[in-house]
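Input record (one chain):
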Amino acid sequence: MTVSFDDPDGKNDRPPPARFAFDRQTWKEIAHLLANLPASLVGFVYVVVTVSTGAGLSVTVIGLPWLVLGLAGARLLGRAERARARKLLGVRIDEPSRLVARGRGRGRGQGQGPGQSGGLFARLWTGLSDPVAWRTVLYEFIRLPWSVVTFSVTLVGLFAFWPVLPFVARGLTNVDRAMVRGLLSPSDELERRIAELESDRGVVVDTAAADLRRIERDLHDGAQARLVALAMGLGLAKEKLLEDPDAAAVMVDEAHGEVKLALQELRDLARGIHPAILTDRGLDAALSSIASRCTVPVKVTVDLTERPAAAIEGIAYFTASELLQNVSKHSAARTASVDVWRSRDRLLIQVTDDGRGGASLDGGTGMSGLAERLGAVDGLFVLESPVGGPTTVTAELPWRRRGTA
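The corresponding structure, as predicted from the sequence alone:
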């Protein structure tokens, strides 16, 4: 979206009408038109030299890297032109998203050679296929003849037909505004979406890594430690079996207790990864199960005529589970409720409690982490928690049919 300096909301993107008087905006437009020629000469020479040299050297090993560097410089030219348009023409254009190499990170753990080779070619291809840079190259090519016209007309107008120059300058700069918006502005929705997806990918990777570390820690500190103690206990019982059967029986009994505890910890860990009840019976039964373990009475209502995709179902389950844990730990509530329903192509989960309220995304209750996880899958997270309560959290996820990717 483009907005003017005097219109931050972008509701009026057109400059004020031209007048006979040479006001401040008119002088800015005249300055822009006079500066067009030297600026376009620099840009035209740069892109011609860069593209022609890169194309000529493309048969050598340095050709493509040279062209990529040249396109990176074209991006900088585009940034300078956007800044000039902001200052002199009064229009503001969003900066394109940062250029990120696609396929970055591939080859890790596979040896330095393949990894570095894959990363190099990924960066080269990303630079060569940069639409922002190529649009800037096109802009610099077609602007030179136009800048000759605008410079000549403006210079003559200052000495020959200056009474109508404000109108002429307005018409010429409107063409410049159209060129800048058409060729130097980002592909708004696509560019913004790419930036969001890059950010979301980082959140997903970090979340997955944190979950793996948690599972590893739980296995190491819980079931693994108990199984090690169990093996040692059974070894001692085996040694005492003949010389002290009673002591051996006590050790076996203790080992039996350790086995039960280890099995329970493994069940809890498996439930934390993906509970069997969710797989077998769906959200209604799974949420009722976690609600029964909450420290306050929870009413669960699930209004779904079919089950969503397993991945969406799992995210919905763990979102509700974490929110109910917050109710138990922080809310001091007397009652709570969980409602799940579908609205068109979205799955909605709403958790409400009548506690003391005052919850926030940065309050240390894990709310910000939930919001990031939902955002990473194109979901939404809305928190309403005035001091004194009640607290209502609404989570929204994209609906995908079961069995789809």
